[in-house]
Amino acid sequence: MSADEPAIPLPTAHEKEVSFLARSGAVVTLRLIDTDRFEVKLDTRMDYTATLLKSGDVYELHPAPGVHAIGGTGLTATDLYERF
User: For the whole model, what pTM was predicted?
Assistant: First the structure.
């Protein structure tokens, strides 16, 4: 991660849920499901649920079935910040 790349706060076993403000102004909430696996919710779209997987410095985003949103693989923290 470069110095100018935004940091995405990730929940831990101790703090199971965290939120961050994305570029759009949406509050993105991440909830720990399992090691390096998180549930994603948006305050601006109550129907939005996705699974975020972390592998090193890259992420995979998989919207839940029935959610009309674009997922992706090989995403960076900047991609996530910009996307939401």
Answer: 0.88
